[in-house]
């Protein structure tokens, strides 16, 4: 007998799905907030300490660049396993949503660092020189010139990362976390119920599309085009 | 150091790179700029002008020598101490360098925020400056909505905002068409005349020097080859770099083709007179009949600088050899005379 979408037992799947969506939002949001902030700082460090930068400092740049290159290529699923001792030390547990969030923060931090750096590189150096010539301090230049001048591309870059985080969160089930990915595997795939998996797919598509639309809208507003 | 010297360079050298690939951008330059004057620095691109002007506000540091600005040795200052001096020095750029994330008034207000002006005073000052540059109605627009000339006027308003003592103009008209160039130069001149601001302008365009400068330094391969009043240098260029500029700016010396064409219709000896004082020359020219020679002006014209006239005039002089010689000798007393061959 082929069961269909219409035959789903909503009294069971309804709360399960809502819980899964809640877990996904929980993981993505926390990882985005922490990874976004730490990544921004590291990205700024990469950009400002490079040769000719506002805070040019070769040792700091070399070290930062090395660390970013070291962590960033590690596939997320391996990072989850590799960081486990650190996760236990910091979070107190190597499993569950919070453990996943911890690893997601690492992964998103270094992805964001590169994205921030790449977007800042596109700023016209003349604009920064103008601000220096006016006597603006370096902190002021970073906060009131660099970030505003690159805001449009930065919003698009962050949109890209929040979608990548949604992708990462789907692997949470590996260490006992929840979320839509876990729902799709546990409730759909493992129980031979493809329509449940497809339900999860539909939810993810709506989730990602909404994020992308918000990101595009905000970037467009900032860029005035 | 005289207290009138607002800016003073002493034996300043700036080298980029090291070893065999070292490039000396600025080579043992000494100069001074006095309060209230417009000082022009002219040179071909790569002559070291940009590096030189950036040492005035500490954007560049000399490798050796000292730069003193507003009584402080800026070349010896740490980066963290520079903002205070910089807030007294405005700067205008070739590519305008406006903040795209801010409106026109936001751009002009920025240096005021840096200098800690209150919001009310900022608003008042921004309105005043936009009025000065004639862009009051553009206050709420963004830089990309403006033409090149308008962008540079915003750049000037922004540079003048915090009431600086010095204005640095870095090729301020090089990205503009001739009409807008005039507009921007008039604005710089007004800033000098109305606010008494000292201006240092670097350029490769003689036009700029002619329109606004009181004194000029000619820069060639890192060195200042000559400094003097604009009028003197224009009317009597000595070094090759500067002679090249003056001529390219004047376009008043006949080319080989010009000479050939002139020769087809006019006889006599061809000489080019550089005029420092048009009155003296006209007196001599007026005495042509007394010398028994005839002359015809075949090429050239007069130019006007901020406070003097100068020019190159090519005349064909015809008559008895001795009379022509005597006439040309008298012309030499009024201006520098050069024989034209070809």
Structure description:
- The complex is a heterodimer of chains A (225) and B (342).
- Chain A is mostly helical and 225 residues long.
- Chain A has one domain (16-223): Orthogonal Bundle (MetI-like fold), CATH 1.10.3720.
- In chain A, 77% of the residues lie in helices and 0% in strands.
- Chain A is built from ten helices and no strands.
- Chain A has helices at 10-49, 58-71, 76-82, 84-91, 97-121, 125-133, 138-149, 151-169, 180-189, 194-223.
- Chain A starts with 9 loop residues before the first helix and ends with a helix.
- The mean pLDDT of chain A is 94.
- Chain B starts with a strand and ends with a strand.
- Chain B has two domains: 5-88 and 164-248, Rossmann fold; 256-339, Alpha-Beta Plaits.
- Chain B has 342 residues and is α/β, with parallel strands linked by helices.
- Chain B is elongated and about 80 Å long.
- Chain B has helices spanning 49-54, 82-86, 104-114, 119-132, 148-160, 178-195, 206-212, 230-235, 240-250, 256-265, 278-286, 288-291, 321-334; strands at residues 5-16, 23-34, 38-42, 64-69, 72-73, 89-92, 166-170, 198-203, 215-220, 223-229, 269-275, 294-304, 309-318, 335-339.
- In chain B, a hairpin with a 6-residue loop joins β1 and β2.
- Chain B has a six-stranded mixed beta sheet with strand order 6-7-8-3-9-10. Chain B has a four-stranded antiparallel beta sheet with strand order 2-1-4-5.
- Chain B is built from 13 helices and 14 strands.
- Chains A and B meet through α6 and α7 of A and α2, β6 and α3 of B.
Predict the CATH topology of chain A.
Answer: MetI-like fold
Q: What about the largest sheet of chain B? A: 6 strands, mixed
Strand content of chain B: 25-35%
Overall helicity of chain A? over 70%
Report the order of strands and helices of chain B: EEEHEEHEHHHEHEHEEHHHEHHEEHE
- The Cα radius of gyration of chain A reads 21 Å
Report the count of strand segments of chain B.
14
Shape annotation of chain A: elongated
Number of contiguous helices of chain A = 10
Biggest interface, chains and residues, is:
A-B, 20 and 30 residues
